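Summary of Year 1 activities. Much of the first year was spent building the evaluation harness for sequence design. The harness presents a backbone, in tokenized form, and records the residue chosen at every position. We chose the following record to illustrate the format because it has been used consistently in internal testing since the harness was completed.
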């Protein structure tokens, strides 16, 4: 059997997120083989991209570790069957208390500011810690998604390395990894290699490293002619340089990445139904049974998700503005060429695996969509559509 999206809508209703497990496995294996020249490679899937527990179990099966940013993501990972040692905690701006709680579970801690480093190191000098370095290299040049610039809230500036070293010495704490995550787009491999050199230089300050974590930033195509990170070229170049560095360093280190989008973006599709087709003086609107309560990336980041009319895939193309049903401007696509749309048609948003469901909300008191995993030629419901009970659950009705 092959993946039949229309029958998934028939069975589970709309709107619904559908994820293809084969595509996730393909991406995982693609990245693994790109770095086959590296002796020890570890991929920690970034849970925040798509955090459904069944998806996490799939990553466990593939041999992946997890990258987490909240104690709740850690709990999800443990619930999915990961060992604490397979999880790294890379939060930003969380309390020392949360870091202590996660550390107590045996999860690798990654600290990204000197104040917390000093406090944690003073209290737990024997717990190995990774430090997040900000090499101040702009990846992609878009300040919305670049976290490497000088005033970024992420990471410990390379200009603060002397202070970092003093804290490590004063507390006798043990640094076992160094990390960077420069932004969302590796467009230019040479720029990434340049940032890596800064990380290698930093690494030389620490004698007992076990791993170097290069974060993520793998770019996937969203629309025709989009640039995609050439992971094969990156694997070849960075892999070779990494092996060379291990020789200089005098020990075998693990090369780590923590990709989210690369792993799941293209595996996901979001299926919605067209409620109405509305002509105005300047455009034709296709209004669907969704909005930024279910998929906010187009409004928040200006992301252009390809939209296909799967009810009429070979229809004559016309221009549409695809909008939602929220009482707020919620334009998914402007003036987009799509096969002719009738009311009741099902549209598919591509690249809906990463940062789509996980950013969904109940705005307008709407239910969050169902999620379906296509696995071993079968569709599995992995999250039920919400009901009114979910809307009212934590609300407390006082007598007035
Ligand atoms: C979000 C995040 C990632 C994943 O980024 P992608 O662009 O989805 O691959 C990796 N590492 C950290 C620390 C993150 O916050």
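For this record, the design step produced the sequence shown next.
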């Amino acid at each position: 059997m092959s993946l039949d999206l229309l029958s998934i809508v028939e069975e589970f209703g709309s709107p619904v997120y559908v994820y293809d497990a084969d595509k996730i496995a393909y991406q995982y294996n693609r990245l693994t083989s790109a770095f086959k020249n590296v002796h020890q490679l570890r991929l920690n899937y970034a849970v925040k991209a798509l955090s459904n527990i069944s998806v996490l179990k799939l990553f466990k099966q593939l041999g992946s570790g997890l990258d987490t940013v909240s104690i709740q993501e850690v709990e999800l990972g443990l619930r999915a069957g990961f060992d604490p040692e397979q999880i790294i905690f890379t939060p930003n701006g969380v309390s020392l208390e949360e870091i202590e709680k996660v550390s107590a579970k045996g999860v690798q801690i990654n600290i990204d500011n000197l104040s917390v480093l000093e406090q944690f190191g003073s209290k737990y000098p024997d717990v190995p810690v990774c430090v997040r370095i900000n090499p101040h290299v702009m990846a992609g040049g878009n300040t919305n998604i670049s976290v490497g610039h000088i005033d970024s809230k992420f990471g410990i500036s390379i200009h603060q390395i002397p202070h970092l070293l003093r804290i490590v010495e004063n507390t006798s704490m043990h640094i076992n990894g160094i990390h960077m995550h420069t932004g969302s787009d590796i467009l230019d491999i040479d720029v990434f290699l340049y940032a890596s050199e800064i990380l290698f230089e930093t690494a030389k300050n620490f004698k007992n490293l076990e791993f170097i974590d290069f974060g993520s930033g793998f770019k996937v195509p969203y629309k025709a002619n989009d640039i995609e990170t050439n992971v094969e070229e990156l694997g070849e170049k960075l892999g070779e340089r990494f092996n060379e560095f291990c020789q200089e360093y005098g020990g075998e280190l693990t090369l780590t990445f923590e990709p989210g989008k690369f792993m799941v973006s293209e595996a996901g599709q979001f299926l919605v139904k067209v409620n109405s087709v509305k002509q105005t003086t300047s455009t034709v609107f296709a209004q669907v049974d969704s909005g930024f309560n279910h998929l906010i990336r187009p409004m928040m980041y200006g992301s252009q998700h390809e939209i296909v009319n799967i009810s009429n895939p070979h229809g004559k193309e016309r221009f549409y503005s695809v909008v939602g049903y929220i009482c707020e401007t919620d334009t998914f696509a402007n003036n987009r060429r799509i096969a002719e749309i009738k009311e009741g048609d099902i549209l598919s948003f591509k690249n809906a695996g990463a940062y789509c469901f996980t950013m969904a909300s109940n705005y307008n008191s709407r239910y969050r969509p169902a999620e379906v995993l296509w696995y071993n030629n079968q569709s599995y419901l992995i999250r039920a559509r919400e009901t009114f009970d979910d809307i009212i659950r934590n609300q407390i009705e006082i007598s007035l």
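Confidence is low (pLDDT under 50) at residues 142-146. Quantitative recovery figures across the full test set are reported in Table 2.
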